[in-house]
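From the pipeline queue, job 12 of 40. The input is one protein chain; the requested action is below.

Action: predict structure.
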Amino acid sequence: MTTAAQVTAAALKHVGTVENPPGSNQTVFGVLYGWNGVPWCDIFVSEMGKEASGGYALLGKFAYTPTHANWFASQGRFGSTPIPGAIVFFDWDGGKDRSGIDHVEVVIRNLGGGMFITVGGNTGSPEGVHIVQRSMALVVGFGYPNYNGSPTPPYQPPAPSEAVKRIQRIVGSAVDGELGPDTRAHILAWQKAHGVVPADGDWGPITEAAYQRTLLPAPKPPVVVGVDRIKTRAIQTAVHVAVDGQLGPQTAMAVTAVIKGPGHGYAVQYIQARVGTPVDGEWGPHSAAAQIATIKEMQHALRVGEDGIWGKITGAAWEKYYGLNIGR
């Protein structure tokens, strides 16, 4: 029977494949699937299952991500643990219901601490097949294919009251499991103290991401140890994150926000807060100018043409550098 390693190897073989022409959703995977020119992240996953196993029975044949997730759930094979070969389902708006899923990738490795590495299609810049480092913040769940009769990791979601208690411990309110006015007031104070925008008293995906950043180790003083570290520090300076020479998840998330700009989840507020433009959630000329200036700084660090446009050459340079230095 097919193994997880065979599926991930099939997917990794296609890293670097991009849409042709760019922005068209036209791919070889759509041709193989029989439906081309449409969003293709799940089409890629389906075709990798077929490529590795010879048919669609292992990973299913789906183009609509919520239906794919429900297919795993109907088999009792949907859970909350990132393991190699699992199919991860995301909701970029931060919801946790399968009906809101809008993206899917294949897990390569669990890094621990709520972080993992994936390979997926219809992602990155330029849009194509890329290796990406992800966090649990926007994950709805994981589908577990039946690799060699492998058991499904147990799914034990916390009861709502336990989730509230966790938040209460973080913000310092009374721990009673009730999301009442006192807890919301403490959440609001925590958001303001940590620069969360908007500060609204609700513990959503932006606030959770801010909390996860507080768990990262304190940045060490920069030490010049080689050209790679110099590049990383230059990129970190450009995207306004802690300059420590380590190409970690915070830097990757900031770069993604800068590249995507409007339309990438919370990227508008993120880039505004990072580059010092008014944080109002509106993508206006100030934000656009800040994005162009930031991309130029990154292009300078990557040693490609500095035109402020994240095109094919710049994207390829970033993907190559990221792939060589991830986790270092």
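Job complete. Residues 285-302 form the longest helix (18 residues).
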